[in-house]
User: Fold this.
Amino acid sequence: MRCLVTGGAGFIGSHLSERLIQRNHDVVCLDNFNTFYDPAIKRKNVEPLLSHPRYRLIEGDILQWDLLEKVFQEGQFEAVIHLAARAGVRPSIKEPRLYQKVNVEGTVNLLEISSRMGLPRFILASSSSVYGNNTKVPFSEDDPVDFPISPYAATKKACELLGFTYASLYNLPVTCLRFFTVYGPRQRPDMAIHKFTKSIVENREITLFGDGTSCRDYTYITDIIDGIMKAIDLCDGYRIYNLGESQTIQLSQLIQMLEETLGKKAKIKPMPPQPGDVSMTYADVSKARKELGYSPCVSIPEGIGRFVEWYLNQGSTPLSSDD
Assistant:
């Protein structure tokens, strides 16, 4: 199978590209190496893949229609795995127009050209943020998602709706995957586990927004990749699936777990809650288990241990001055 992975140099995309190649698929990675975080990190992610005969890297933007036409015409793809997006809840509040342009317009470009080409598989990366402050737990795909509390979340819901439209109008098979806080080796440096680990190791303060009781369903990268691979194999019609660990941990407990794993105490700087942050995420993965055969298996203690081992061995990068 020949696959296009947008955002393929990022955290999830680079892991997915490796798995696809291991399964003897051809991978074209499209990434614009933007400066949301240091592009050198993404270049390091894909460096081991560059010499592989089944891998091709294209530097470009999903907003460049002419480029997309050329890439699709040359690629003859059998699957698009669309991971590219402007990421982050808090930054989206500062730059909502940018998030709308990249996430919504970029997704429309890919859906449009995929439908014109008659592609048999379109996998769309969505987010648990679409649930907003859902009071029913765990979160089910059947729950209403009409109240996103950040522009980022709103763009992800918009992308899901657009996926439904293209599936209905053009019979483009679209599967939307709602990721629940993915972590592991190569995790983005702005994400909590990576950022907290750096701060503890370097004896710097952790900024703790809220009282530490917010809960997240942290999902280890290998479980997410397993779910994506199954979704590629079974993509048909229009589907939405949660991909999470279906376990939760409070923020204060997460910090304590990192302290124990690193053997160092954290320095905590309490701050008020941040706008756009939800109080809990918790995935009901029963639909993904039943229809995809998804079976997450990495517990948070095991995953934290793996991440810390990676960080201490090779993953550390200097903290920027505004962290």
Remarks:
- Confidence is low (pLDDT under 50) at residues 317-323.
